[in-house]
Every structure is written in C-alpha cells, then in structure tokens.
Queue: 2 jobs
Job 1
Amino acid sequence: MNAVLSPPKLFVRTVPLRDRAGSLVRRLPEGAALAWLSGDDGIVGWGEAARLEPEAAPAGTPPTDNSRIAQAARWFTGLLEHAEVEDEVGLPGTGLVTFGTFTFAPTSPGSALVVPRVLVGRRGDRAWLTTVTDEPVEHPEELLRPATEPRPVGPLEWRPGSLTRQEWMDAVAGTVGRIRAGELEKAVLARDAIARAQSPVDVRVLLERLRTRFPSCFTFSVAGMVGATPELLLRREGDQLTSLVLAGTRPRGEDAESDRRLGQEMMASAKDVEEHGLAVDSLRAALEPLAAELAVPAWPHLLGLANVQHLATRVHARLAPGVSALDAVAALHPTAAVGGTPTETAMRLIGEVEGMDRGGYTGPVGWLDGAGNSEWGIALRCARVDGSSARLYAGGGIVAGSDPAAEAAETESKFRVMREALADPRG
Ligand SMILES: C=C(O[C@H]1C=CC=C(C(=O)O)[C@@H]1O)C(=O)O
C-alpha cells in the first residue's frame, strides 16, 4: 500500500492551450493511458505523479463496505494539502486531478487512483494543459511531446469466460427461481469473455473507436479498465449533482419504424419498468440523506445507443453542505442497476453464482479535481486490458419475468461494444 501519511509535495500548473485541433486521444503517448472522454470533450493524462492502490478488504467483509472509497478521499485530501497549485483556467478538470477506478466488491483487488504527470483537457472552446511535477516548471508546454501513431490491434483469439453460455443461462434460471421464491427482487448477473492479441494492445486505438462510435457515452481508460459507459453514477459541479440511471435494454431496430416499436414495447413492459424502477429507487434512497433538494422524474425516457437502447432516468440534486463527490460515490455504489434489490442479498448471490471476480467492472470509474468537481461513471461496456489480453464483461438485470436466453442475447449485444473496439468490423 502507498504511504498515506507522508504525501509527496507536488507542483501543479494549469495553463490554457491554444491548439485545440484534433482528438484528445492523439495527444496520448503509447503506454498506460488515462482518459475520460465525452465526444470531443474530456481529459487525457499520462505518467504518474502519485498513485494509490487501496487494499482489498479481507474475505467476510460485508459486500456493501465502501471503505476503499473513503481511503481514496483521505489520500487525495492529503495530496492537495501538500500541493502548490497554480491554475490559470479554473474549470472542472483543471488544477490537481486524479483518475480513479474502484472495484465492484470490497474484497476484489484492482481499485486504483492515479494522478498523471501531464493532463490535457478540453471543454467546448477551452483547452488546457496541466503538469504535476516534483519541482516547479517554467515552461509546462515542454512536457507535451508529439505522440506516436497508434498500433493496430491485429488478429485476436477468443476464449469463453468463466462460465459457458449454457452454464450462465442455468445461473440466470436459478436466480429467477430464487426471485420467484421471494428471496430477493432483482439481481444483475454478468459474464465474461477473453480476447488474446499477438502483441500488447494499444489502448489508444480502442479509445478512438469508442469515443467516435459512442459520442453520448463516457469513454474511459483508468488502470487497465477501458470502455464506453452510458451510465453516469454522478457528475458534481459545485453543489449540483446529476446522475443518469439506466436499466432495461432492447436491441436497436433494423429501421426507424422497428426501432420505435422496440422502444415503445420496452416502455410498456411491466418487467422492464419494474427492473428500471428498482434501480431508480436504490439511487433515490441513497441520495436522499445527502441532498438539500432532489428531483426524480416519474417516468423513464428512452436512450438510444449504437448497439442497444435503454430505459433512462436523469436525476438532479443540490447536495447538502459538506457532502463531497466521493461521499456521494460511496453512498450510491452499488445501485440496483449493477447489484440488485435488496443490495446485500443480491451481492452475495452474485458472488455465489457468477463464478468470476468482476474487478473494476460495474464499479465506479472517473475523476476528481481539487475543487471537488467530479465525474464518475459505472464501468460498463468495458474490458480489463492487461498487455496482450482483454477480459470483456457484460451483464443484465434479472427479475421474476426474465428469460435466460433473452438475457444471454442481451449480454451479447453489450459485449459488441468492446468486441468491435478490439476488432472493428468496418476495418
Ligand atoms: C450490467 C450492465 O448493464 C446495466 C446497465 C444498463 C442496463 C441494464 C439492463 O438492462 O440489464 C443493466 O442494469 C452491463 O452493461 O453489463
């Protein structure tokens, strides 16, 4: 574990960047890329000025324990206290910034917070460069290096994950039985798939494909977790918090008419509306104690993505004084969009029947700045990239009315996000 007691002194400088041309991804050198992108906006970073890897909790720790998030909050506060910050831009994502990924379960290794040495950001027509160094720097632009061309991923070999398709459908059927017997109301069950390339995967290729294919999603890369999630756990700017809850999935139609029909069918489906309602309720219950004001729409809307469409609810809150972004992340994780209802029962069932460690999949992933601004997605439609291998994850909400074959097909549409980022069918 990192030395939490004596953080290094950091010199942080943010300066405006005049050159806003091109994708932020093109700025990244090859290697451990850090990124949080939404269309053309976002932040990318590289190098490591500071890193924390919160230890996994011992076996037997309650599955809802979020002390790894509280530990990260203390660590970042300590860094800030020892940092000398000169910020000429003053936007969310300027000054000292840490990227972060937290595991779904407290007992899994893999949570990490990384403060990059160099960060480039863009928001609308403003762009900036932040450097984080051990000595003051006079010319931060000198730390910007021309990046190399991304390397194509090349041929892939696919292997099934921890469970075969049939074994996973059996787990879904067993879960439906337990839900019908009254043990719980909902559990989100996931599966994995493994891709092996012939050389280390250049994450920049994945980021560029994901960001252009899913401009309304959040494309991320933090400590090996790479993906494009549509689900915003929270965005905090000042005391305003926004969250986008998703649960309920249908494919996209072949044409506008069938697409509309599939969407309307989902809006009218008791099974999908129940599955979605449980996710909204869990968010509302977690947020209420932290909010001075809370607005939750009565009905979901449809959110169309390139591969699937979802039921979506956008929630707004004004946070009570003193509530930080990471306080809110710790209170909200895991929502019933990735765990279930009741939370503890669902998390124990997930641990029992999935046959794999989710790692950072379905955990919070995002960034935090020194002013308390922050964006955290839920790590969905993602993979853990480790050298030349990638472990892809996808899941779906199981309720009393779920059909195992339909759920397996749903995970396959969700896998497509990362399958096509790794092996673009359009060449
Ligand atoms: C668990 C996943 O999706 C969640 C988020 C949106 C819709 C979901 C659903 O309809 O089941 C899931 O709750 C995943 O993408 O792996």
Note: The chain has one domain: 10-149+158-422.
Job 2
Amino acid sequence: MASHKIKIAARVRPRLEHEIDDEGIQVTHTSGAPSCISVPNPRDVSQIFNFPLSSCYDQNSTQEDIFERDVRPLIDVVYSGVTVTIFAYGVTSSGKTHTMQGTKAQPGVIPRVVEAMFEQKASLQRSSVELSVSYMEIYKDEVYDLLVNRETAPKLPVRENDAGQVFVANLTSFPIKSMEEFDRIYSQASRHRSVGATNLNRTSSRSHAVLTLEVMMTDSTAQRTLTGKMNLVDLAGSENNKLTGNDSTRMAESAAINKSLSVLGQVVHALNQGASRIPYRNSKLTRILQDALGGSSVGLLICNIAPGTKFRQDTLNTLNFAVRTKNVENRPVINERDNRPQPKPHFAAVQPAPAKLAPAVLHAIPVHASGSSAVATTTSNIAAVAGPSRGQRPSKVPRPSAVGPGLLPPLYSRPSSRPSSRPSIPEKMEPVTQLTDKEIDERIARAVEAEVARRLKEREEQERVEQARLQQEKENLALQEKQAVENVKAEPKLPSGVLSPLLKRHRDLDEELRARLAELEQKYERGNKELQLADVLSPASRKKTGRAYVALARAHSEKGDLDVALELYRKAETYVPDNVKLRERVLEIEWAVKNGKDFVPSPKKQRKVRGKKRKVAVERICEEATSLGQSSIGQSSLDDGEDGERGFGDGEGATIKVKEEYEGQTTIHETPAKRTRC
Ligand SMILES: Nc1ncnc2c1ncn2[C@@H]1O[C@H](COP(=O)(O)OP(=O)(O)OP(=O)(O)O)[C@@H](O)[C@H]1O
C-alpha cells in the first residue's frame, strides 16, 4: 500500500500595525526546486536558516492562492472516500484563524472547502450525495460540541470503536444542503468558540477547533457507499506568557494549549523515530488527530508565521516542527461500503465473528487521488462520526489492531480482540454460501438432536456412578456397625474383686514416682545452678572449686556421712566433669548408700605442702556445707599422689580453707589444694 507523507505549507502573514518587522523572513521560489523560507537567527542575524518546503507563501499571498494550490486538490480525495485533515499550526497571532476561517471579505479555507464540496456534489450525476457538518473545540483538554448551546454543552468523551477508530461520542452532526445553510450554522457555532483577548491578539483562540465535513456518496447502481471526510483544524497558538501578558485564567488556558502542542510535537517525534509507543493518549488533541498523524488520512499542515522580530524564536520553532512533520507517513484508506444484500450469516456456519458485524461487504478498489499524493487502496467500514477514520498504519509504527490492506476476502472484518461468544464450527463444514437455508436448518436439527442425546447419556452415566457410590457407602457403614457389636461381645469379663489390689498397687507406685520426680527436680535445679556457676568461672577456678568440694566430701565420707559426702562429690563433678576418678568415687558411694554398706575411702597420701596457700571459694563452699546440715568436721587432708593422671589440680602445693558451721560452732578446714585426691 502506498504511503502518503503529510504535506507542509508555510504562510507568512502581513505585518500588523505597530509590529516591528525587520523583513528578515524571506520566501524564495526557484524554478525546478522547492520553495524555501529563510529566517535569520534571532541571536545572530547574520546567520540564516533555510527551510525548503513544498509550498511557501509570503506576506502578499492571498486566501485564494493557498486554497487553489494546496487545498482544492484535496476535495477530490475526500470525494474518493478518504479522510483528509488540514491543520493550521503556529504561534499565537500568526494568522491560523485568518487562514482557516478568514473574514467575509477574505474567506479562508473552511468556507472555500464547503463551497468546493457543494460544487463537486453538483457535478456528480450518478450518486446521491449527502453532506453533513460537525464542529467541536478542545478547550483545556476537554471536548465540547460547538453546534449546541455552549453554555450548557457537556464535556464529550473521546472513544475508540471496535474497528480501532477514535471518535467523539455524542457529537452533533448536521446535514447541510446549501452554502447558506452551512454559513448560518458555522457563523453561529464560531461564536461559541472560546476566544479571549491577549496582548498579542484581541481575538485569540483559546481552544483547538475541529470542523468536520462528511460527504456520503451512495451509488445505487453499483450498490456501494463511499464516505469521505474533511477535518479542518484551527489549532490554538503556542504562547509565550511574557509576551501575551496573560492573567490567571489565560495562563491556565495557555498551559493547556502549550501542553497539548507539546504532546503533538512528541507524537511527531515518536513517529519519526519509529517508536513502538506513540503518545497519542497524552492529550485529547493528539487522540483526536491520531488518524491524521501516522494514520489513514491524507494530511496538510499549514504553518503560519508571524513576521515580527519578537516572534523570531517561535518562527524557528514552528518551522522545525514543520520539518519534522513532513517525514510522518500516513497510509490512507478508502471508506467504502457495499450495499448489496449479503447471505445472512448463520451462527452455526460462520467463521468466528467480529464484535460488530459489518452491515455491508467491504471491497478493495483502486483509487487515484488528485494532487500531489497518490492514495492507496484498501477498505474499511467507517462509523459516521466526527472522529477520523483509521485503517492500515505505516509500517514504521507497528500497532496491534492494523487492518491488512486491499486483499480482504468477502465477509472479512477486523478480527475482534474480544473472545467471540459464537460457537466455533468444525473445519470440515462447508462455507455457508454453498448451503441452502433448508440444508442449514436440517443440519441444525441433526446437531441439536445429537447434542440432546449426548447430554442425556452423560446425565444417565453420572446418575449411575452416584448411585453406585451411595450403595458402597451404605454397605461400608453396615459392616462397621456389625464389627463394633461383635467386638463388644468378644471382650472377656473379669471376676469381681480382681482389680482392687491392682489399683491399690498402681496408686502406691504413683506416689513413689511422684516423690522421686520431686527429688529429681530439686537435684536438677541445684545442678543447674552449679552448672551456671561453673560456666562463668575460669578453668583454673573451676578446678579449684571442684577440689574444695572433693576435700569436703572426703571429710564427710570419713565421718561416715555418706549422703552428704555423695552430694558434695556430685557438686565437685559439675566443676570437673571429665575427671574419671571422681566419677568412680560418686558411683562407689552411690552403691554404698543404695545398699546400706559402709564406704571405706582409700588411704590418703601425705604430701609436702609448699609455696603459698590459696584460698578458693571458701565462703561459698561453707554455705553449701551449712545448707547440707553437716556436722563440724576436723581437718581433712586430701591425697593427690595416687594417680597424677586421674587427679586434678594445678600442681602447686596450695591449701584450701573450708569454714563450716554447725550448731553454733565454726570450724576451719585447711586442705592442700594441689592434686586433690578423691
Ligand atoms: N494573511 C493575513 N492578512 C491580513 N491579516 C492577517 C493575515 N493573517 C493574520 N492576520 C491578522 O492577524 C491577526 C492575528 O491573526 P489570527 O487571529 O488569525 O491569529 P491566530 O494565529 O489565529 O492567533 P491565536 O492563536 O491567538 O488565535 C488578526 O487580526 C488577523 O486578521
């Protein structure tokens, strides 16, 4: 499919009264070359920027010049069923409204287009042609209908139909039969447009205005309808608030205007970059102009330029935008509808249907647009709304909903992204067009019968399985009950009085066990305390404490007080848990206590006491001894010479002083601390 680049025209308006113009902006026409507009750099006037554009109009150009050269050729394009969008772009006060709307004396593009369309209509013999008009403005990023009372006009939503076409919902469209009728409607609607006075323009447009002329051509012989549209867009001008002297209201308007124009620039930039995402949705303006920018319409951009020196930078901005826009490619489509009666599609025989069935068949017909651009051919059924049509898009900008060009089969429509509620058909089924109504009805009857039979069988099978399951459950329950009864019967009965002694013994055991547990708990608690204490002592202190306990235990065992001795040995064990000899001693005494035997400790070996004496944990051990309730004991000597390997101590000839209290008497035991013998 042929692509169409947006055509760019630039028009310099005449100097206004009190405007300083250095005549720096020049338009040159050279035969055989594109016309060119030259603008001096505002920071260095010796530097000139040249912008070659296909159409450049100087200050002396007329409304007629522009219309005849660039606009009239597009009337044919509209009448071929294509959407055309012409938009005027430029800084505020650059002459956009003058170019598009003009005055009574100098009518602009809009009235001239309407006139030309009526002329074209009159020239068409075979077709019935209907013209209609709609008019809206985008004010502060909201859409308003200009054909209704502006005071009560609601904000209109911008929507997208199933075919991916953007449109303004609930926008009024008036049929127009004559130029006079249009003038009446248009002049009234123009009064509704938001206009305000700024320092730069007494009648500055505060909104973007979009006037759409739709022409619907029905050829009854060929049984087809072509729908062409002409969107005429008068953009609000970008504003420099320093120059406009805007108040707060104007500032808010200005911000909305500048933002939407900025998005327009971003859209153009993204299109030129071939970006995967084009930010159309970032403003209502670009959303509505989506079809004109990288879409399926033919476009003409008229860049209006103000000659005043104060606008020089804006002029450069406008022309830079023009240069970028001229690279944007559209793929225009013809909007045609086939009115021939179509075989009624049957739900059981059609391919998965689109969300909305087209009321007519769509065909691809080659069309040659007049003017500079050849219009490619494709088909689309376009909703009769003010929004631009959308069809095949430029390959540079991939979009998921693009419709394939030209070669569409009959009954083709854009596949819906929504899941179809219609039943799918078997592949082997013949196309509906080859079946008579009777055949289709027979097929349906057969299919329904088969389906009913299948469902009945399925239900019967389900019921059978359910009944079998219930029966099985019932049987299982009965079996369980029977077994329970038999178990009760089988239990042996004891003669009376047999259980009494057993129960008594059980109670005795219980008490014994409880006492034993209490004792164990006590021991555990004590042991725990000892362990905690042993944990915080240094290894040397642990040994010394252990040795002191051993000495004390030995003294008690010699006295025959084995219980206390055992307790003290056990304490000693918590400080020196790895001492094997100590462990043996504990076991020996435990055995003696348990069996009521005497314990004879091994004879102690006397050692030389040398070096200074050490005092180890005496106070604490005394407390222990007191708490154990032992009697006063005399000096206890400890034998460390029996087995150096198995004994413990630090090898020095230290002594341990142990103070004990019993029945008011205090006794101090002094024992050698080195290699304490257990
Ligand atoms: N080609 C022209 N010949 C004579 N006067 C012109 C021409 N173009 C613009 N003017 C005058 O310049 C002034 C500003 O023009 P216009 O209102 O069309 O600018 P604009 O770009 O639409 O401004 P805004 O963006 O603020 O609406 C108007 O008084 C208009 O009549």
Note: The domain at 4-338 is CATH 3.40.850.10 (Kinesin).
